[in-house]
Amino acid sequence: MHGAMLHVLLCVAVFATFIRLAWCVAGFLRMFGNHARARVSNWGLVQFLVVPEAYLLGLAGLLLWLSLERGGTATPLELAFAALGATLSVTGLLVSVWTFFAFPSIGTGHYVAVDQAIVSRGPYAWVRHPTYLGVVLLWFGLGIAFLSLPVLMAAAFYSVVYQLYARREEQMMSAAFGETYVLYCAQVGRFLPRSLRPFQSESAA
Length: 205
What we know:
The chain is mainly α. The protein has a single domain (about 1-185), classed as Four Helix Bundle (Hemerythrin (Met), subunit A) (Up-down Bundle). Helix content is about 65%, strand content about 5%. It is built from 7 helices and 2 strands. Helix 3 packs parallel to helix 5 (about 130-145) and helix 5 (about 130-145) runs antiparallel to helix 6 (about 150-175). The N and C termini lie far apart (about 55 Å). The mean pLDDT is about 85.
């Protein structure tokens, strides 16, 4: 019984990465049109480090899934880690989906579209970079579920990379939107909420 439950939890963590990979492929295809129409775009070393991330996560999930043993038993500790990892993975996926509904035109890469405005609704009312938060949760969720040291090391690496990535994006957005975006950043945390209440722009207040 415990072995079957462990298998289900591990599969949940893995398939969350597969869903996100499919989502990112769509975002990558959309990127070309978005960058062609952008009034500002930004590429550098940090941006290129992020490009393969979703595919590496999907590959890690596939390799771990192929290594799963069917049947067998599981200790309570293994079940606890698998449950925590699956919860983090599902949370990361849900945050990603919520982000898409709040910002349907979102795509891969750093750019500012001609008609783009600052998005401060949905998850953006709580954190400035919900997409990257979702990514980090998925990496840690997979690593914790499988107790995989290489995946946890990759999760730590991409946690740092996305911090740098977010800073570059914020510099671009501040240059494009000025004081309005600076005020938004002052009131909304980068990856963690700063308040128990969601941000409200002056126009929505």
